UniProtKB/TrEMBL annotation:
PANTHER family: CYTOCHROME YDHU-RELATED, NI/FE-HYDROGENASE 1 B-TYPE CYTOCHROME SUBUNIT. Keywords: Cell membrane, Membrane, Transmembrane, Transmembrane helix. InterPro entries: Cyt_b561_bac/Ni-Hgenase, Di-haem_cyt_TM, Hydrogenase_cytochrome. Signal peptide: none annotated. It comes from Garicola koreensis. The lineage of its organism: Bacteria, Bacillati, Actinomycetota, Actinomycetes, Micrococcales. It comes from the Bacteria. This is Thiosulfate reductase cytochrome b subunit. SUPFAM superfamilies: Transmembrane di-heme cytochromes. The keyword GTP-binding does not apply. Residues 93-275 form the Cytochrome b561 bacterial/Ni-hydrogenase domain. It is found in: Cell membrane. It is a multi-pass membrane protein. The keyword Secreted does not apply.
Amino acid sequence: MQDSSSPTPAEAKTGAAEHTTPKPPKTQPAQKTFLNRTGRQWAVQGGIGVVAIIVVAAVAVLLTRWLLDTETVAGFVERYPGQYSQPEAPGGYPWWLNWAHFFNAFLMVLVIKTGIQIRTEARPAAYWTPKWNKKRKISLTIWLHNALDLLWVLNGVIFVVLLLATGYWQRVVPTSWEIFPNALSAGLQYVSLDWPTVGEWAHYNSLQELAYFTTIFIAAPLAILTGLRMSGLWPANNQALNKLFPVELARAVHFPVMIYFTVFILVHLILVFATDALANLNQIYTGDETQNWTGFWLFALSLAVIVAGAFLARALFVAPIASLFGRVGR
Ligand code: HEM
């Protein structure tokens, strides 16, 4: 192989190499890519994806409408209208539910943001060492994630205790096997775009109730348990416990649970806005069911608070708080 700086035989003959600097080989200008795709590829493949989704959705809507018109399915929906009767469940939205729901949304956005940051940051801005264990050192992002987790768990425990104490739990915990055929019926009606309307505003339809139950009583405990396993609170020296609940299992479950929460929040918000938005926002922010803009403006304010929280969740502002509980450094 010839060294690129040494003259070729022809150059050696003419002495050309002494007067001309070797030209670098011609290369294409580097294309900017995101997740291994160029902007053009994203546009083409994204466009095909969107068209495919629209076609599949349209076929699903038409097929479900046709199904709902058949005698069997129409009879099924008549028998299971999408919600079962819950005579004991209290109605309305008490103030504690309004506040717990807001704190939950605020903390959840920050928990998801810092969770994604932990997975993606190559070099943390700073590290934190607890006062009580000088050998343990975690990134400031993990510290913030865990601090937010503790507040989120505290808020969640207060919420669940109040749910149980006031009877409101009956709205979000299935109390009859009829929830399953009713959820299927509600699902069919959602897909047909002929959406189930809630007869009494205190009652959720069965699919909604199952989603709330899964979020509060399955996803949240799973997030807590798997997070605890990966945290400094876990008794790492207890071999029996470690074997019973391997850290790899915790890691494998923690991330999909975060995906679940993200999808839940997106669908939840779409449905809040697609079904009588003003009344929904009034219920969850003021506890009132009237049709005015108060709930909407409180929602806008709460979004501003969430965005401000997300902005402040950076080392500059977090370090002074974290240093109250340990040493912050590099
Ligand atoms: C700012 C964003 C949010 C808005 C505007 C919002 C809105 C609402 C509304 C309007 C309801 C009442 C539903 C109805 O009457 O049909 C509700 C209930 C509920 N939301 Fe949200 N939500 C938000 C974020 C979240 C988040 C992040 C979670 C949890 C991951 C969540 C979990 C729930 C649960 C569990 C209920 C049922 C509460 C009960 O009745 O006990 N929400 N939300």
